[in-house]
């Protein structure tokens, strides 16, 4: 008579775990997930708080770079201009010391501003509009970001004497000052009104912009050709 073999009961091996128990212990608890989400959210809040400041700094850097490029272009134009025309010599721009005052370029009787868009490209305007920006139309105002004032001193002031306390005027040097104002809103910018015959007032005929308009100023000396 044969006997059926009964299966032996499974005996767990010491130190081993069932697949089910290993899977149950491999996840994260709700507390751990909540803490992780909180840390990530805190980091993102800090990053988002820095974004406006970073964008503002980037915009200021771009404006400074473009202002420098525009000023260099205007100075190059002045350097390539005939010296007698640059100082407006035909109207007495360099006849005597009292005529060593400053005026807005390109000529004493034809003082004009120049305008550039946000990419640094010049916006062409009529001469009457260059003399009086209030005559700009709405389309031009929308395009213009940078206002450029060119001030020319027919006789550049030079220090004289050992101490350098006196001032003399050079007949063969012109002082060209270029101001670039970041003015996308098209606000009117007044000019300084100091006495033009006073060489101790270097701010005359320059932009007298309010604090909310950024103005960069660049200067160079241009010599009379031999």
Write a structural description.
With 226 residues, this protein is of the alpha+beta class. It has one domain (58-223). Helix content is 31%, strand content 22%. It has five helices and nine strands. It has helices at residues 19-24, 30-79, 83-86, 127-131, 138-143; strands spanning 103-104, 106-107, 110-111, 114-117, 144-153, 156-160, 166-170, 173-182, 214-223. The strands form three sheets. Strands 1, 4, 5, 8 and 9 form a five-stranded antiparallel sheet that branches. The chain has a two-stranded antiparallel ribbon with strand order 2-3. Strands 6-7 form a two-stranded antiparallel sheet. Strand 6 and strand 7 form a beta hairpin. It starts with 18 loop residues before the first helix and ends with a strand.
Strand and helix layout:
Elements: H1 19-24, H2 30-79, H3 83-86, E1 103-104, E2 106-107, E3 110-111, E4 114-117, H4 127-131, H5 138-143, E5 144-153, E6 156-160, E7 166-170, E8 173-182, E9 214-223
Antiparallel strand pairs: 1-5, 2-3, 4-5, 5-8, 6-7, 8-9
Name the features.
226 residues, alpha+beta, five-stranded antiparallel sheet, two-stranded antiparallel ribbon, elongated
Brief summary of the model shown:
With 226 residues, the protein is α+β, with helices and mostly antiparallel strands.
